[in-house]
């Protein structure tokens, strides 16, 4: 496990509230102190201000999908401070409800265990494992139906076109360079 640059305290609890677009509306003092940003720099900013490029995009797609569906989300996230020092958090993200409506999100961060971090590292590393070698079969099965039909029909049309241009006049006894006219059975 790579050592984080910022070692959080077991007793630390970081609270961040955002609106429905992930714009920060509230931060507690513990978070302000650790993040390196001033409160003014944080309020009104997107929470991606703490985003670390190590994190795969799918983790946040999962987070957004879950909380937009009105459900809580928990995950181990690597974030960074204003000076780009990295730290891991166990983030528990919950929708904030008012009169039965989701009006924003609350994120509670705590220090994760070493085991949680190494499991998260494994998961993120696995997800970026090299793709299997290119396979025509897989490529074809991923195409949509219209493209599949085009790929299957176009060579047949090409063959019919070539036959109609060169082979049919020949079979009908037409001279090279003329084409056979089906309508009046002549070569022109
Ligand atoms: C409540 C809440 C908490 C979030 N927590 C984090 C977080 O701790 N770290 C992070 O990088 N993104 C977090 N995000 C996701 C960011 O909004 C953003 O989608 C992510 O950083 C990816 O940045 P990008 O959309 O600019 O690529 C959170 C979003 C919400 C709604």
Q: How far is the first residue's CA from the last residue's CA? A: 80 Å
- How much of the polypeptide forms β-strand, as a percent range? 15-25%
Strand order of the largest sheet: 2-1-5-4-3
The tally of beta strands, per DSSP, is 7
Compute the average pLDDT.
Answer: 89
Which ligands, by name, code or SMILES, are bound? Answer: flavin mononucleotide
Structural class, by secondary structure, is alpha+beta
What's the CATH architecture of the largest domain?
A: 2-Layer Sandwich
* Biggest β-sheet strands, sense, barrel: 5 strands, antiparallel
What is the CATH topology assignment of the largest domain? Beta-Lactamase
| The first-level CATH class name of the largest domain | Alpha Beta
SSE string, helices as H and strands as E: EEHHHEEEHHHEE
List the domain count as a whole number.
Answer: 2
Task: Give the helix/strand layout.
Elements: E1 14-18, E2 24-27, H1 29-35, H2 39-42, H3 57-68, E3 73-80, E4 86-98, E5 101-110, H4 114-127, H5 136-141, H6 145-171, E6 180-181, E7 186-187
Antiparallel strand pairs: 1-2, 1-5, 3-4, 4-5, 6-7
Key traits:
single chain, 188 residues, alpha+beta, Beta-Lactamase, 2 domains, two-stranded antiparallel ribbon, 6 helices, 7 strands, 37% helix, PAS
